[in-house]
Amino acid sequence: MKARVEVSFRDGVLDPEAQAIGRALASLGFGDVRGVRRTKVIELDLATTDRATAESELKAMCEQLLANPVIETYRISLTE
Amino acid sequence: MKARVEVSFRDGVLDPEAQAIGRALASLGFGDVRGVRRTKVIELDLATTDRATAESELKAMCEQLLANPVIETYRISLTE
Question: Which chain A residues are closer than 8 Å to B60 by Cβ?
């Protein structure tokens, strides 16, 4: 089973790297950029074929490693 | 106009951070993970409303900053 985990900063949380990208684009002459946001996407190949097992495992992986629940939110999607 | 840039490593290019995630998941007891891949997603708010302008600007942004053409590929999508 293939899993896709999208991890983004919570609204209102400062993303220094996104800000740095915005400044760098401006310094390269791209004056058209009004906002920059970043999302981390982690794709996982899971041995299990059971959807419920995959979902609970992924939730635990996110809570323990892939996302920082204090400043990040995550979204999980599964494909057979 | 909103733009979404997805940047991934080219096939065959080693992604040390993805490997580290894989090892960390295994050490946390998640033995079900067979592969890990990462994608960087950068969302941009552009002032322009002209699609062709946005596309050419985004291509230049990717070539100059957002992606390393030697080891990464990128995919651009636009929404009004």
Answer: 30
In degrees and rounded to multiples of 5, residue A44 shows phi and psi of -125, 135
8 Å CB contact of A65 and B28:
yes
Distance, CA of B31 to chain centre: 26
Computed from CA positions of residues B77, B75, A42, B20, in that sequence, does the dihedral angle turn out positive or negative? negative
Residue of A nearest to B57 (CA): A30
pLDDT digits (tens, 9 = 90+) for A38-79: 999 999 999 999 999 999 999 999 999 999 999 999 999 999
CATH value at residue A31? 3.30.1280.10
| Distance from C-alpha of A72 to C-alpha of A55, rounded to nearest angstrom | 19
Distance from the Cα of B43 to chain A's closest Cα (Å) equals: 5
Range of the domain at B64: 2-79
Say yes or no for a CB contact (<8 Å) between B41 and A41.
Answer: yes
Q: How many structural domains does chain B have?
A: 1
The CA R_g of chain A, rounded to the nearest whole Å, is 16
What confidence tier does B80 reach under pLDDT thresholds 50, 70, 90?
Answer: confident
> CA of A37, closest CA in chain B: separation in Å?
5
